[in-house]
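Exercise 7.
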Amino acid sequence: MNIADRLAESAARFPDKPAVIWPRRRRLRAADHESISFRAVNELVDASAAALSNAGIRRSMLTLVMIRPGRDFFAVTFALFRIGAVPVLIDPGMGRAGMARCIAQVGAQALVGIPLAQLFRLTHPRAFRTVRTSVTVDRRWAESLPRAPSRAADTSADDAAAILFTSGSTGPAKGVMYTHGVFEAQVRCLESHFGYAPDETDLATFPLFALFDVALGMTAVIPDMDASRPGRADPRKLAATIARFGCTHMFGSPALLGRLADHCSRAGIRLSGLKRILTAGAPIRPELLARVRAVVPDSCRIHTPYGATEALPVSDITDAEILSNTAHETRCGAGNCVGRPLAGLDVRVIEIGDRPIARWCDTRACGAGEIGEIVVKGPIATRTYHRLPDATAAAKINDPRDGGVWHRMGDVGYFDSAGRLWYCGRKSQRVTTAGGALFTEPCEAIFNQHAAVERTALVGVGPAGGQRPVLCVELKPAEKRRPRGGRKDDVRAELLEIAAAHESTRGITTVLFARRFPVDVRHNAKIVREKLAAWAAKHM
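Solution. The predicted structure, written as tokens, is:
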């Protein structure tokens, strides 16, 4: 089994169909995009595999891939799959220091990167100290390769395929070990659940998801945007790209979708070609779903799947069910419904704990409606972090009954009586007071209904078990523009009245106003509450 075989199959089925379309320059005109067919990209992968092998990259060799999204990124990544090497992909949005830490931790033996990546290597020699083989991919690299056929390495389902780093938004970024079997299971899961058709075209705003496009036989359109800052993407360019290339599918973080929906609403644009939208990376509020729904056709399905780098997708729900059924409960503090587990997965909720759990028999299952820790077992779930035995022990539970491994999602939630999973926040971000635990998503949703509030974040100040709950508030732009702080005192008083009126928020007596919340580097949507908690402690 080798995930690169998926590309060869797509090339045989759709040889002349565009596999990747990418911007050549920072403008949106006909001459400024290039494309490559499935047949041509498969041939380029063959040539790249031969070139990388000749450079000394071998099977099982950990290889840093530092290339911008586009043709060469796909060619190099699938070439490494084909020769059995292990591409290492790190999110550049985490900044230079974060990238250097990840590179040093992974201990890669090779680097394939653009000239800027080679410069980064020269300026951070300690991080790259294990790298012995280096290949530069410049603008002429692909054209200079002699075309030569190659055969995929005879890898098994359990062989390492790639190391994908988490975003590091709620702790140090960790390298997740993907096997060829996990990749194949995820592709099959996406195929069967979302019903992708071969004639579809994806607006690929997240490069890692675009790798699945090629494996699924879909055309990946790389938009003119900085993929490491989706929250700053130009919605005019996104809308124009969707229309120009007839995109039927798109993945977008809530931050990106909000900008796109607002632009389309103001400009009177309807994204009429879209059949499906996937949004993930952070909980999406019902109000945002309604705004997106207003600018797409009635036939377009908006999915909000739940998952993580270590296990995806885990569950799914559409906007139709949210807006007609669960949105009211979310606004009242029930958490965010993330739908039912996908076929072939075992998803449970167990008693919350912060220590490693060696065996499944040491867990206690939670009943319906009881908030606990979400765990998942199945073919789409990874088993280890690379070179991080303590992190692996903390996040994995061995199940001797079938030899399987449960992944602890690091999230808290519960199942309702209908078998739907509800997300209540990150386990590490729960606020533990002397009177019990407060969970971020249920509490924040209650305050988010205030007309002046853009969003809120619940944080704890003080030692665990005796924390003081603090509500951090980001006001809507119009409120921020009011002179001399506007009516913050009035808003604070009104929020405290709301807190006193609900049992789950009654213990919140401190409200602080933040100019802007820190967010994760990958999707620009998750609130980094750890930074807010440190800020709150200084402003109490």
